[in-house]
Amino acid sequence: MSTTDLPRVLIAEDDADIRDLVTFKLTQAGYVIEAFPDGASAWEAFQSNPPHLAVLDIMMPGLSGLDVLRRIRQSQHSSVPVLLLSAKSRDSDVDTGFAVGADDYVVKPFSARELLHRVNGMLARSR
Questions:
Q1: How far apart (Å, rounded) are the C-alpha atoms in residues 43 and 58?
Q2: Where does residue 50 rank: exposed (0-12), middle (13-18), buried (19+ CB within 10 A)?
Q3: What is the dotted CATH code of the domain comprising 8-126?
Q4: At what angle do helices 91-100 and 65-74 cross, to 10 degrees?
Q5: What is the DSSP letter of 3?
Q6: 69-87 burial, b for 16+ CB within 10 Å, e for fewer?
Q7: HSE (CB half, 13 Å, CA atoms) of 40?
Q8: Would you kindly state where each structural domain of the chain is located, as residue ranges?
Q9: What is the pLDDT of residues 30-85, one digit of tens each?
Q10: Which helix (H) or strand (E) holds 56?
């Protein structure tokens, strides 16, 4: 299987350590990763080459993960599954994420294995 056949996952996370961890774990699982340190560059990449799934941190400089999610849901690729990754753990924060259009929500700190299971499940359901 060539890399063009593998599922592509876009990651937007401003914390380099978390971005590297998620990139490493998903690459190990066979996904092609495009990782960005902010919402604006992630949104540009999404528009030019929509991924099979997006993992977005909520709190980022410039465009937040919620801003990017809103734009995705208003785009012609609105069906791309989106997983929000956030330190915001209050019920109201999680409710807001789902209300804006998230398909899943993972609270930091998180288990890399749990995140991988969620990504695998979301991609399996979207095919």
A1: 13
A2: middle
A3: 3.40.50.2300
A4: 30
A5: T
A6: bebbeeeeeeebbbbbbbe
A7: 3
A8: 8-126
A9: 999 999 999 999 999 999 999 999 999 999 989 999 999 999 999 999 999 999 99
A10: strand 53-57
